[in-house]
Amino acid sequence: MTRPGTMYKAIGGFDSVDRLVTAFYKRVGKHPKLVPIFPEDLTETARKQRLFLTQFFGGPRLYSEERGNPMLRRRHFPFEITPERKDAWLECMDAALDEAQIEEPYRTAIFEKLTMTAHHMMNTP
């Protein structure tokens, strides 16, 4: 169930999340700093990201229903997430937000929320 007044609803729901994730992983799959920590086939990674962002933006709790508590930091701990990789991830997301045509003020709010999350994911100097 989608709650009214959510970021998810404001940006256009699942179609917008889908466009964002597609644009994002198109970049991740080519970024020299990110390729080493992502699988060669990004299909499943992108599917999970769609579930997560749907929930993260206030839509249906698809991620938790399928995978339980997100526990992002713990799930990402096996991967060396350096400040450079965090920046590369955010660079890909920034460009994906443009490509997916996420409009203001939602674009800035989403990027700020994801920036805080990306900083929290860093686990390697």
From TrEMBL:
Keywords: Heme, Iron, Metal-binding, Transport. Transmembrane segments: none annotated. It comes from the Bacteria. Pfam families: Bac_globin (PF01152). InterPro entries: GlbO/GLB3-like (IPR044203), Globin-like_sf (IPR009050), Globin/Proto (IPR012292), Globin_bac-like_CS (IPR019795), Hemoglobin_trunc (IPR001486). The keyword Metal-binding applies. Gene3D superfamilies: Globins (1.10.490.10). Its cofactor is heme. Belongs to the truncated hemoglobin family. Group II subfamily. PANTHER family: TWO-ON-TWO HEMOGLOBIN-3. This is Globin. It comes from Virgibacillus siamensis.
